[in-house]
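4.2 Preliminary Data

To establish feasibility before requesting continued support, the project team ran the inverse folding procedure on a target of 306 residues. The structure was first converted into the token representation described in Section 3, and no sequence information of any kind was made available to the design step. The complete token record follows.
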């Protein structure tokens, strides 16, 4: 890897890295894993308070595994994409039952955990265990697209060529490679941002192909594809229905859902999806509950099959 990239980025990170609890010297692999689940498609500012509450309640995988999956959904609050909570609970169960309560360091073992894809496995292996892996989140991909390829933004999905490029840039020493991975991620989050990059503050601006090309803009149609509508969507409806359940101390009636969302057809579709995803349990008496929050015969815990 050219030292013109590594040295200035690592030096910049040493001076500008945010003080985040999952980066603290004493952060456990479980703490790193929880943070990676929460940070998927969710900014740090929203994650931080929920992360602190989560870790105070469940500082170990065993602590979370001992509670029903519905409690994970309740604690997830308004972070969005609540299937992550269900999968994190299932991961806690697997770590507890198959790995003795210790998050595995092996990449393939991490990849076998529920809800853990190649990015999350690489991130945990790198940040928790100081291994040498290409960690390709949105921020890293944007930095490399601009710095190396001269493109304003990466493609929607990583390609084989993109992954090989990222791997070729990794420093040889695993611990340094792990620090490089988080440093580039931080550079993308704080300086090489999507909308308003601060090129004057970038430690590798002089080597940036995108800056040298005059900072060409992304094609309008590509930018539109990256913008996700939320208001009025099924996703917003699902969030409203889950909020009703999270705030209730007991199973709720269908009328409680009707009061939370005006469109009957969309409500039916969203509720069916929540049931299919294992996020809501329909009870024999016609009421609804979070998974595992009722007697086993009424609503069996689905955490092991999520």
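Position-by-position output of the design step:
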């Amino acid at each position: 890897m050219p030292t013109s990239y590594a040295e200035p980025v690592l030096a910049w990170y040493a001076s500008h890295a945010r003080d985040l609890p999952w980066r603290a010297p004493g952060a456990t692999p479980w703490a790193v894993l929880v943070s990676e689940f929460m940070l998927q498609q969710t900014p740090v500012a929203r994650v931080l308070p929920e992360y602190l509450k989560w870790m105070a309640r469940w500082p170990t995988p065993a602590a979370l595994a001992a509670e029903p999956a519905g409690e994970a959904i309740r604690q997830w609050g308004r972070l969005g994409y609540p299937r992550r909570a269900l999968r994190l609970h299932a991961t806690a169960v697997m770590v507890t039952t198959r790995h003795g309560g210790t998050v595995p360091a092996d990449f393939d073992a991490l990849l076998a955990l529920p809800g853990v894809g190649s990015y999350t496995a690489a991130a945990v292996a790198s940040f928790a265990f100081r291994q040498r892996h290409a960690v390709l989140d949105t921020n890293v991909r944007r930095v490399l697209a601009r710095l190396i390829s001269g493109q304003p933004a990466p493609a929607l999905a990583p390609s084989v060529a993109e992954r090989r490029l990222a791997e070729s840039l990794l420093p040889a020493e695993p611990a340094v490679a792990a620090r490089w991975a988080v440093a580039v991620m931080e550079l993308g989050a704080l300086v090489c941002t999507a909308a308003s990059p601060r090129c004057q503050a970038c430690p590798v601006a002089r080597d940036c192909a995108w800056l040298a090309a005059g900072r060409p803009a992304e094609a309008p149609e590509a930018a539109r594809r990256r913008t996700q509508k939320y208001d009025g969507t099924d996703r917003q409806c699902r969030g409203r229905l889950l909020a009703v359940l999270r705030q209730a101390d007991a199973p709720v009636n269908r009328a409680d859902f009707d009061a939370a969302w005006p469109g009957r057809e969309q409500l039916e579709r969203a509720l069916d999806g929540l049931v299919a995803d294992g996020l809501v349990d329909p009870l024999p008496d016609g009421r609804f509950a979070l998974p595992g929050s009722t007697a086993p015969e009424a609503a069996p815990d689905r955490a092991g099959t999520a």
